[in-house]
Amino acid sequence: MQEDEKHILEQFEARLRDLLGKHKELKEENRKLAAQVTEKENQLIELQGRFTNLEQLYNNLKQARMISLSYDEVDKAKEHIGRLVREIDQCIDSLIKQQ
To answer: What does the alpha-carbon distance between residue 99 and residue 91 come to, in Å, rounded to a whole number?
Structure first.
């Protein structure tokens, strides 16, 4: 019986060493994964900041474009009014000539 107990004790010690080794490996892997999570969180924060900046730049660009379109529309309206005034002047001149 002592031989069986010795064999059982040796198996237990071997399994315990295996478990301790696996525990050490898993602990190291967990540390690496935690570091990766922290790095990814930092990248996410940085990307969110960049996104916010780009979104603000995009909104500014849209506003600038709307303003430039407004200036173009004003110029077109001025040209149109100028043409109407010339037509009215021509009509007035032709009416004066008919009298």
So the answer is: 13
